Amino acid sequence: MRGPIVNAGYISNGDSEKMIQACVECLQAGGIVIIFPEGTRSVDGKPYKFQRGAARIALKANTVLTPVTLRCHPPTLSKQDKWYQIPAQKFHLGMSVGNDIVLDNFRNITPDSVAVRRLTRHLQDYFTQQRELHEHTET
After folding, report:
1. How far apart are CA 25 and CA 16, in angstroms?
2. pLDDT over 70 (residue 114)
3. What's the predicted TM-score (pTM) here?
4. 27 pLDDT band (50/70/90 cuts)?
5. pLDDT greater than 90 at residue 75
6. How far apart are CA 60 and CA 40, in angstroms?
7. Which of 90, 94, 117, 95 minimizes the C-alpha distance to 106?
8. What is the rounded CA–CA span in Å between residue 121 and residue 61?
9. Beta carbons within 8 Å of 72's beta carbon, 6+ residues apart
10. So where are the chain's domains?
11. pLDDT of 139 higher than 60
């Protein structure tokens, strides 16, 4: 199983500083990095609690962020479920790609640690709003 993961360009998060640097180098070389800012799967009904790695990487790489929202109905493979607990009916996956988030306003904030925290909060608020919009349209 390791071969396909390595060939897909997986960057290990075993050492956070090495992971951040590898992501920055990938982005600066024109690559694409997919990051789940929670660091794990979301828990239904619970507020998001994002890690700061995505914001650190984006600011350090001097790039833009493209937010992508993933949806699954009915829910499956959530953090609180076992991998073998699947819904009785087929599940449907959806994806929404938002407008790029330009980081100019965050780059002007000093020190860097404050910029990272503010960008992380911005991302958390964005995805919370997307979740609420989706939940509102489902009912």
Report:
1. 14
2. yes
3. 0.85
4. very high
5. no
6. 22
7. 117
8. 19
9. 91, 92, 93, 94
10. 36-138
11. no
